[in-house]
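S., here's the first fold you wanted:
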Amino acid sequence: MYGKASAPEYQGALTTLSVNSSLVDVLAAGTERLAAAERAGERAEVARSGLAVAEAHRRLGQVREADLAWKASYRAARDAGDVAAMAWALWSGGTLARQRGAFPLARRLLGLAADLGERGGDVVVRGYSLAGLAETGRIQGDYEAVGRLHEQLLAEARRRGEARHTVWALEGIAQMHRNSGDLDTAHALFEEAAEISARADDRRGHAWALRGLADVVSIRDGDTERALALLSEAETTCRAMNLTGALAYNHKMRGNVLYRAARYAEARDLYERALAEFGAMSEPRGKALARLGLAKSLARLGRDRSETAKELTALAGELERIGLRHAREMVDRAEQELGIGTDPAGPRCVTAEAVR
């Protein structure tokens, strides 16, 4: 049995905030409490309220502000001798690094956060940090290395009845099955994640689960209209909570669904929209994947083949730079699908799949 989802990253005087609180409201409350704590010289509270500010900025796509906020939270926690708060700040910084495509930095910060969480006796931040490490590896396509960790974290979350982390783990495992071609298992796991998140009132987790379901329904069943309906339901939540990143990925997925349905002009418009949204939040992974979808849509709409070939070559280099190891299959499939042919310079060590 799962209880109502909670938001352990909202701490100190901000524990009354809900997991479903609008990020604009979280930022306002966090900023106000942070200023009051600074005036009072309460370093521990500065660290805790600063964490909420950092997370609100990150989820709103405000990268520079998020970077400044998590570092300030860490310094305040260090000054206060609060090891667990230091771990939470490092978790936020590591999550931001992953969002920015800085995967080595993400692994380093999240690893430190997990260690400090254990030292500080905070099993929640330790779990969140290990989950962050697992998600980083999954995004890079290193399924063998992180698959067991996902399963371990899922078992722990189920045992403790933590709905939010159970949903996260289910979605991650489902995505790996989807990318490996096991669509039936992926559908079942995304469906379970959607059911648990709905019962636990975890609207963010529910929006991500609906996005995953829409993807599988589109591929496996060819049911374009149901997929679009699921994405529309998820988009309503994204807008209500100001989930900037989730909304951009929702739009990119809508582009994917429309492309599969041969509605190329509509797909082009959605990819362009997502590309602008990812660009505004400095999200290189999403930006590269939106560019790939846009290149394919434009090719279908009559773009010159040489221009498409150049775009795919550039994307291959970008995906390699980001560190998405399994992106080569996507680029190769795009070339084959569009009849572009293989790069005469030889194979490229790149690829990726859109996971979040």
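And the second, which I think is the more interesting of the pair:
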Amino acid sequence: MFTIGEIAEILGISTHTLRYYEKEKIVTPVRDASGDRRYHDSHLKWLQFVIKLKETQMPIAKIKKYASLVLEGEHTSQERLNLLEEHKHSINKQIKTLQAADEMLEHKTSAYKDFISKRG
């Protein structure tokens, strides 16, 4: 079991973010006898997934939707699959956009390097 501070450090996020995720019902830590939050390994794995979704630009509203579907149970599997496939499509578009930008920047930086080496 992890404290909120420990899980925040492991994940590289703030305790404020963890409290926000709890408030938004994205994660539900257990409470010990004194009311302190405690996180299991399953919470850690779930939060790692949530962070990846966030890092890949999934809107928080969709993350909340996905989390609520998980809590509803197995009968939401198709809807969860659809949501993740839609996000995967979005990621693939991002990758293509970034690759095109990288190619453009590579061409531009090569041109500058050539120009500078000819002057120097």
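Why I say that: Residues 77-119 form the longest helix (43 residues). The chain is about 75% helix and 5% strand.

Talk tomorrow,
H.
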